[in-house]
Amino acid sequence: MAEVSEVRVYQAVSGKLYVQLWQGSGSIVEPITSFMGLKLSDRLARVGIRLENKAAKQALTDRINAAEPITTSLVPEAPGWIGPCFVLMSGDVVHEPTGTEIVVAFDAEPRRCGQGGSFHIWRKDVAGELTGLSVPMVVIMACLLPPLMPYMPLVEPFALEVIDPDDGELSIITQLAAAVVGGTGLATSESFAVPLRTLMQDERWVAQRHRHHPLILDGVDAYIDLATPKERSKVYNTLAHQLPLWGREGHDLGVKTVAILTASRSIRPTASVPFGSTDALITLNLSAGGGRGILDPLPAAHRSGAAFADHLRSTIRAEHGTAFRRLVKALPNPSSDEAVTLQRTLGDLQGEFLTAVEDRFGLVQGSRAAKVFGACYAAGRYAQRRGVLPKTWNCLASALDCFQLHRGDVKYSAPLAEQLQQHIDAGSILAVSDGSDRAAQTARALELGATVRDAKAGREVRMTPEVAATLLTDWPAILNAPDACDILVLGDGRHRQRKASLAPGMERRRLFCFRLPPAEEPPGIFSDDIPPVLPRASKRKRPEYREIVSGPQRLR
Fold first, then answer.
1. Which pLDDT score, from 0 to 100, does residue 48 have?
2. Can you give the pTM of this predicted structure?
3. Strand 158-163 and strand 281-285: pairing?
4. Which among 341, 158, 325 is positioned nearest to 241, based on CA atoms?
5. Other CB atoms within 10 Å distance of the CB of residue 540
6. Using the 8-state DSSP alphabet, how is residue 249 labeled?
């Protein structure tokens, strides 16, 4: 029977303890809680460790309990950035600090992140062949975005769906995206893509496994075809609303990722979510783009889209898994001075795109999509500067093209806070106070079903669920959106509604309550903000004035 030759206990940044066991050249790392009851026989057997009697089990338990936790090592509990180093899903460490031991405490997946061929051939014969093809170019730029997201405060995790009901070559997008990071699923290669079914079985676990890596989803149509209406709604909610929340500062997951999926139809209508204020899910619907295909315009060297797709598949079978590593190796430590410079550079690049959007389309309400495509553009341009993407790519033109494609498929509406303010201004939300005529105020509040009152932290809007469903655009789809979660006042327990009264003196009931900033006070007679009074020409309208801000302007 093989004996355990060495036992070490490490403490991760989260405070959790991990045990590393050695037997010969083999080792295993497990949470210390996994050893309670010692039900690890199969996993220990992988490295030749056998605990065949109670004495051996007790001896191992005693050694673990006697070990002093080591706190000077880095213990990555998930892939991605940890301190100054980046841990790939394969378990490989980039930017390993000198003199610091790194103990990978998650199950590495080297086959999914497998490499093949040469990076330079991938850049020339795969990425180079895609020059001028907006959709695959933006998808590849999006795949390179997750490790850059810690440097980009203007973008949250998002899902990008590529839809085409008629194109039989849609799977090439998934395979090209997977080839950026690892295996393609072609020939004997394991695919980096994850079946949608796997994600829905454990969303949090799969998301954490893709921390600072792209989450490429496969088998979307197959899952949706067999899913119940409730399961379809859950898919939409996970990708459109939960994904951004998981990446927010302070969230226990801290997942920065981009989900990419292809399907014959959008998951929005299959989940009974109407097209409306749906920037939470970014859609590129090729059927709305004038009938062009995924690989249009077709390069002159290829006679058909199918032949071109076969050529690309043949190439990525041999050349894959190198571009993502190349970019990560070029990135600075997130806490270094170089990181500050990189953050400024990426912010400027994103600002370039937002300025181009404003120049080309005007100021777009609900500009989250513009920020998303701006982030993809910034990732693409930075990757070009670091030699990861070909210089022949026009990242700006491609990102603008895809933004227009998305914009043509989605009707924009104002964010929730802006909608509430519009209804307050229009009088469909009643302003109430303690000093008002109680009887008249109560009657009006019952009639409208929505009120606003001054509170300590600003203003509070209260409305009945029935009024929320009719007054607010895309309700209840927007209820889980990040901007709604920011202003929603939660009730007790798991209730989204809380017990409150519409107006002073009224009966308390379950209402949706939203916190808005204080109303702006009109300027006083000595205020510097009053615009100058100009002579008014007879029978002519007073000219409109707007603030002019020097320098480049950005959408917020």
1. 64
2. 0.73
3. parallel
4. 158
5. 7
6. T
